[in-house]
UniProtKB/TrEMBL annotation:
Organism annotation: Thalassococcus profundi
Cofactor(s) the protein requires to work: Mg(2+); Mn(2+)
Keywords per UniProt: ATP-binding, Ligase, Magnesium, Manganese, Metal-binding, Nucleotide-binding, Protein biosynthesis, Ribonucleoprotein, Ribosomal protein
Domain ATP-grasp: 270-453
GO biological process: SOS response; translation
Annotated Gene Ontology cellular component terms: cytoplasm; ribosome
Family: In the C-terminal section; belongs to the RimK family.
GO molecular function: ATP binding; metal ion binding; ribosomal S6-glutamic acid ligase activity
SUPFAM superfamilies per the UniProt record, alphabetical: Acid proteases (SSF50630), Glutathione synthetase ATP-binding domain-like (SSF56059)
InterPro entries attached to this UniProt entry: Asp_endopeptidase, ATP-grasp, ATP-grasp_RimK-type, ATP_grasp_subdomain_1, Peptidase_aspartic_dom_sf, Rimk_N, Rp_bS6_RimK/Lys_biosynth_LsyX
Protein name from the UniProt record: Probable alpha-L-glutamate ligase
Length: 467
């Protein structure tokens, strides 16, 4: 040790002090100082391990304010050890050990903490001797020698952004090993989250009022912080039922069952957009074959688009260039007992549409899609091409309003540029990421995780003053 080095200022601690654990999103805690205990301890319940075996993590929840069981802060951290701790009354307990930054006044340093339920204790944290630096002086007869904090901080917006590095456990509901699913897993794991791909059709549900559950491959699924639905059109009904079950449990679902259901039914979708006064091509629907001519007159003159209600990726969409051709297509669809819409063909769009990717109520990227030569459909799955495009304020606002109408946090809104302004063709609740990421050169998966990390905060803002 250098004899000329200045000695650190002496820090006075009473037997109880206000501290914060910023890594865990806990801006104010009362800690009891106990030099008789070796390791510090933090109140925790619903303790659950997750993550890979070579880098295990633990997540838990905490009531930071004694007597306020309605105020819940979720936390997570890397497990650094698991050890047996013997309490003052001689009881031994196996506890997970984590590390966190301790902040007291203007000073901060790293400490280790064991996790245990301290519900019956007045102090949510115990500060053991290993956490006390050499230049801390304990004044056993005093309290709060360091600056005092307040539980009122949990009523502020600070608590929502206090733990930006919290690891989450996320489920991607997908039956396909495609680009979008792989990107969601890759990006989530890069951020330190645990991301699990769940085959929607292999889920089954325990439906009851007291303990609704989702099971998978013979076991109950763990508690997820968020679910990202990637529900295929062929399993929409069962997939949305699984999502409703997660909603019943209280899991944060990026897109809800209601919005996915509405987006998959073309008739429902157009009625919903009409209710919200969102521009779209003139559209008509009828059941009786006797109404064919009237149906076509409602839309306009040929050419017309005839579209199956559950069409996806351009399948089941036909361009009828003459009135006679339209009648033939309609008769054919009716012969198959298929439900369909008839729409005006927007000639000025010239086989192009614009895909706006909306995340959390913002258009984060947009691309212009052009159909393959001789094909009026611009879907990339049908050989179309895409390039980044600059959209107008009206187009941006229309895309945002459309996603909001369906209550979707992630949506691909397809627009046509017409002489009367933007017209929405479709709102996709499971938009592919490959085309939009390639065209825009943006990390769309990352922007989605930004939204998840900001919004997966089960601790609500409390308005009444805390004691």
């Amino acid at each position: 040790m250098n004899d000329d080095a200045p000695m650190p200022d002496l820090i006075r601690f009473g037997w109880e002090e206000w501290v914060s654990l910023p890594d865990l999103g806990l801006p104010a805690l009362k800690a009891k100082v106990d030099t008789g205990a070796r390791t510090s301890a933090l109140h925790a319940y619903d303790i659950e391990t997750f993550g890979p075996a070579n880098a295990p993590k633990v997540r838990f929840t905490i009531h930071p304010v004694p007597g306020r069981d309605d105020l819940i802060i979720p936390c997570s951290a890397r497990i650094v050890d698991r050890r047996t701790v013997t309490s003052s009354n001689g009881e031994s307990e196996q506890r997970y050990v984590i590390a966190s930054t301790l902040r007291v006044g203007d000073d901060s340093w790293r400490i280790e903490l064991t996790l245990t339920n301290r519900d019956r204790m007045n102090s949510r944290m115990l500060l053991g001797r290993e956490a006390l630096k050499d230049h801390i002086s304990i004044v056993a007869t005093d309290r709060f020698c360091q600056p005092e904090l307040s539980y009122d901080v949990y009523s502020s917006k600070q608590v929502r952004t206090a733990a930006p590095n919290r690891s989450l456990r996320i489920a991607v509901l997908s039956r396909e090993d495609n680009y979008s699913t792989r990107r969601l897993v890759e990006e989530g794991e890069k951020r330190g989250h645990t991301v699990e791909v769940i085959d929607t059709t292999r889920c089954y549900m325990a439906i009851n009022a007291m303990a609704p559950e989702v099971h998978y491959d013979g076991a109950r699924l763990p508690r997820y912080d968020a679910v990202i639905p990637r529900i295929g059109s062929s399993v929409t009904a069962y997939g949305t039922a699984v999502i409703r079950q997660f909603e019943t449990i209280g899991t944060h679902c990026i897109n809800g069952s209601e919005g996915i259901t509405a987006s998959r039914d073309k008739l429902h979708a157009h009625q919903l957009m009409a209710r919200h006064k969102i521009g779209m091509p003139n559209t008509a629907f009828a059941s009786s074959p006797k109404d064919t001519d009237s149906l076509m007159r409602l839309v306009g003159t040929a050419p017309l688009i005839v579209k199956l209600l559950e069409s996806t990726q351009g399948k089941g969409v036909v361009l009828a260039e003459t009135k006679k051709a339209a009648q033939s297509v309609i008769d054919a669809f009716r012969g198959l007992r298929a439900n369909f819409l008839v729409q005006d063909f927007v000639k000025e769009a010239a086989g192009e549409d614009i895909r706006c990717l909306v995340v959390g109520g913002k258009v984060v990227a947009s691309m212009k899609r052009t159909g393959a030569e001789g094909d009026f459909r611009s879907n990339l799955h049908r050989g179309g091409s895409a390039k980044v495009v600059r959209i107008s304020k009206e187009e941006r606002d229309t895309a945002i309003r459309a996603a909001k109408a369906f209550k979707l946090n992630l949506a691909g809104v397809d627009l046509l540029r017409s002489e009367a302004g933007p017209k929405v063709l479709e709102v996709n609740s499971s938009p592919g990421l490959e085309g939009i990421e390639t065209a825009s050169k943006k990390n769309i998966a990352g922007l989605l995780y930004d939204h998840i990390e900001t919004n997966v905060r089960p601790a609500p803002v409390r308005r009444r003053k805390l004691g």
